Amino acid sequence: MSTFGRKPPVTQTPGGQDRAGGGLYARDRAWHPAPLTPPYKTSVARSPMRAPISFPTTLSEETGPVFTHDMLGQLDADLIHNYAKSPDGAIGPRIVVQGRVLDQDGRGVPHALVEVWQANAGGRYRHKKEGYLAPLDPDFGGCGRCLTDEFGNYEFRTIQPGPYPWPNGPNDWRPAHIHFSVFGQSWGQRLITQMYFDGDPMIWHCPIVGTIPSREGIESLVARLDMEATIPMDARVYRFDIVLRGRRQTLFENRMEGL
Ligand SMILES: [Fe+2]
Question: Which domains does the chain have, with CATH numbers?
Answer without folding.
Answer: 57-256 (2.60.130.10)
